[in-house]
Amino acid sequence: MRHGGWGSGRGIGRRGGGVGSAIGFLRAQISYEVVRTRYLTLDRFDAGMVNDLYAEMREEAEAVVRLGAPDETLVETRNAFMRYRGQGHEITVPLPVGTFGPDDGAALAGWFAEAYSALFSRTIPNLTVEALTWTLSLATDRPGTEAAPSVQTHYRPEPLGQRKLFDPASGAWIEAAVHARSELRPGAEIPGPAVIVEDETTTLVTNGFGATINRLGQIVLARKETAA
Question: How far is the C-alpha of 166 from the C-alpha of 174, rounded, in Å?
Fold first, then answer.
């Protein structure tokens, strides 16, 4: 017997579903990542080589990002892929943005030890640390999307009608309520089975799910909790 609230298993249906990727592309950060392979051991750290490498990477990345964001503030992120000598895999080590000095090999070794310990809860003493790959990511400094505020008042909208649907789970034809998305206000609760129709797409709310409309007008699908 099905009852009560809706638990885990959630999905979001945004307005303009048919062009969602295009909308997301226009709103997303503009970013570009450059990757270079330069092998060195941290006990023989070559600050000049690393500084020159990052200067070249920054120039390449900025030339691309500025095509779409000529005046925006840009955020630079650096990482290096390092390992203990003899290991077959590297780990990602965040690096600060700035100019390295000739004695900064010890600092990189320390950052590597912190990252390694966080992953494996230990370090390996007396082993040389190798850096193999260097990355630089440059992105516009745009705020992320905020979570939708909660809706305090909920209601059950009247359907426009009914439609027969084939339910592959039961192997039978079932009656599903039909709702027009344009008529649904924030707080609407629609138990499955139902279909929500709009110009770009149709959202199917299966028998095991329910739908609500959040404050942003998005369809939130959540699996119904069940009990014997």
Answer: 6
- Secondary structure of residue 81 in the 3-state scheme: strand
Place of tokens 């110009």: 199
pTM (2 decimals)?
0.60
Distances (CA, A) of 186 to 145, 153, 189, 195, 218: 19, 8, 9, 17, 8
Residue 13's nearest CA partner among 224, 223, 222, 221 is 221
Distance CA 53, CA 45 (A): 13
Give the HSE-up count for residue 74: Cα atoms under 13 Å, Cβ half-sphere.
24
Sign of the dihedral through C-alpha 50, 55, 56, 60: positive
**Sequence spans of domains, the chain:** 30-140, 148-226
CATH architecture, domain defined by 30-140 = 2-Layer Sandwich (3.30)
- 113-140 tens-digit pLDDT: 999 999 999 999 999 999 999 999 999 9
d(CA 158, CA 173): 22
Cα dist from 95 to 65, 134, 154, whole Å = 21, 10, 48
